[in-house]
Amino acid sequence: MRQLPPLNMLRVFEEVARHRSFSQAAVGLNVTQGAVSRQIKQLEDYLGIALFVRTPQGLSLTQAGMALSPHLSDAFDHIERAMQAVRVPNLRQRLRILAPPTWATRWLSAHLRGFCERYPDINLSVTHQSSHDNLAEIDCQIRFGLEPATHCNSELLVMERHIAVASPELFEGDHPPDLRRFPLLHILHDGKRLKVWENWIAAMGREDIEADQGLEFSTLDQVIHTTLAGGGLAVIDRQMIERELANGSLLPITPVEVIGPYGYWLDVPGDKQGLSKVRLFTQWLNQVSNP
């Protein structure tokens, strides 16, 4: 008979070792921090040795903890693969994702073929906030913002990379359009203008341009289509207009690029982090977002 402690103790240890945090492990396991602490104490009592030590920099693994951690991770990986191998082959899973409309249309759609080919047994359902009544059904959310969420596991996928662009018809030969001559196109977020023009103008060192003039739109897609039609100039995340930059339907006004401060975040509720479909999507998303 195998001499093993309860598997839940080992699962808790693996989660704490990965995050180096009792509180983050508690969120991932959907339990209290006290429950995590008790499980670790019971495992240390079982082994007769400390697995973690608190330092001024945070929680660290002891030598014994460092020796145990990779073996347990490998063991749980083997268990998961074994379960996947014997489950009903055609049992399809539905992964429900909440995402900004423009990001879903312009970035996710362009990359989804790779995910579907790699994981044919996972069906995706991609919706946006206003079209989803029950947020409890959502497995993960892509969120546009400045900082991580505090109520769930939140990680930065990619920062925006802003460039100023215009339709080729506004160029005069090789000369870019005059920023003072054409309307500046602005994007609204939560009812307020994003200060992408202000940040770009500051990076250019221009003091002769009024950043607050121009037209406002509620979605980035509206800004992009207006720019394509020659209706004005826009500062846009270049990752959202890769196709237009490649085919020349939008041209950079200058090479200046401004990173951030906004980015796209992946938020996963604590009770969803253990799902294999969420883990696989998270891994894939990180790979394609940061090639």
TrEMBL record:
Keyword match Transcription: yes
GO molecular function: DNA-binding transcription factor activity; sequence-specific DNA binding
Single GO biological process annotation from the record: DNA-templated transcription
UniProt keyword Lyase, yes or no: no
Keywords from the UniProt entry: Activator, DNA-binding, Transcription, Transcription regulation
InterPro entries in alphabetical order: LysR-type_TF_proteobact-type (IPR058163), LysR_HTH_N (IPR000847), LysR_subst-bd (IPR005119), WH-like_DNA-bd_sf (IPR036388), WH_DNA-bd_sf (IPR036390)
HTH lysR-type domain residues: 5-62
One Pfam assignment: LysR_substrate
PROSITE patterns associated with the record: HTH_LYSR
PANTHER family registered for this protein in UniProt: HTH-TYPE TRANSCRIPTIONAL REGULATOR (PTHR30537), HTH-TYPE TRANSCRIPTIONAL REGULATOR PERR (PTHR30537:SF58)
Protein family according to the UniProt entry: Belongs to the LysR transcriptional regulatory family.
This protein's name: DNA-binding transcriptional regulator, LysR family
Record lineage: Bacteria, Pseudomonadati, Pseudomonadota, Gammaproteobacteria, Pseudomonadales
